[in-house]
Amino acid sequence: MEGEIDQFLTNTDVVCHGEDMLARMQSLADATGNPEKRLKIVHVAGTSGKTSTCYFVASLLQAAGYTTGLTVSPHVDSVRERATVNLRPLAEGEWESQVHEFFDVVKKSGVRPSYFEFYMGFAYWLFAKLGLDYAVVETGIGGTWDGSNVARRGDKVCIVTDIGYDHTEILGDDLATIAREKVGIIHRGNEVYMYPQSSEILSAAKERAARVRAKLHVQPDEARNFMVRNLNLARRAVDFVLQRDHGRTLTPDEVKQGRTVRIPARAEEIVYKCKQIIMDGSHNPQKLRAFVEYLDQRYPSGSRALVATLGSNKSATLDDSMAALRLICDRIVLTSFQDDSIETYRRTSIDQETLVAAARRAGFGSTEYVHDPMEALAQAVGGPAEQIVVTGSFFLLNHLRPDILPRRCDMMETRRRK
Question: Are 275 and 228 found together in one domain?
């Protein structure tokens, strides 16, 4: 079924971005009954922290007793992560049945969506069909022209996480331009939650909110731990939703329950071959610096090795990313990936020579390159380091996690520390 869908979809979202894409997504929404108009939505945009904030919002709403849909991208292990209900993917049989029904509607419509648009449209359609209380929606790239931005109800709640440099070839190469794209998810009447950021970012948010008569809440938060910051921002938005809709806010027990959600490939800890593995999909300098600080706070270790690579679309920030990675430890095992999915249009990692040269410029004392990701991990695990950190790309983690997770030793625990 998935192969049939892939053959039907276009590749346009990997070669263009803008008004045409949103127009195509709007046509898809119209053809499928405009499900986004029947949903109470929390919409999340930003550069860093989007996915974990989305998971926290969904988890807190579920802890408060409300049925909640969640759509994030990219997925880590399974496409079913793009439309979860109460934080659980549908069973494979149910997923195939629902996707097949949606696919039939799309084929008859004459719309040819991209991969991202198809599964975003499916998430909206599924959540509305199931009559869920809330939908939590993560943008793909940017905001203004993102396929998720067909959601424009006045009661939508927006969260804008930390904004920085990413996808500059699409969003622009200065913070003011990038911020204007991100805050484009804000529509008339929306409530908007964000932390204080640089003047150009705040100016973009304030200008957008004023223009569409939205209410902007710039919330102070002094937590240095980026997971705690994301949780606190999610909590503020959820408290507003609950107060508005139900005349209540989260209880301490609900917050405690909501914060325990497991977020795939975001500072995720497992034990593999009785070594501590910390995996995170950070893939730009801003995310990597936040991850390094979190790592030192929550998983301090004097005995680390690093397995990493970066996508070919991250070449412009490679040196800054390597400088951030060097803060983790002195030994790096570099590796590669190739992703052949229709969504990424055969995305690959940066080539060996470029990666190794950048690692040496960053000052790593030990730099190795092992082409195969599992062999690279084995090289790190086989050394003396007690903790292995794997980061740099979600596509690297996608190559490793399916093999690592089923092979845990008997002492294994999978847990998240907040």
Answer: no
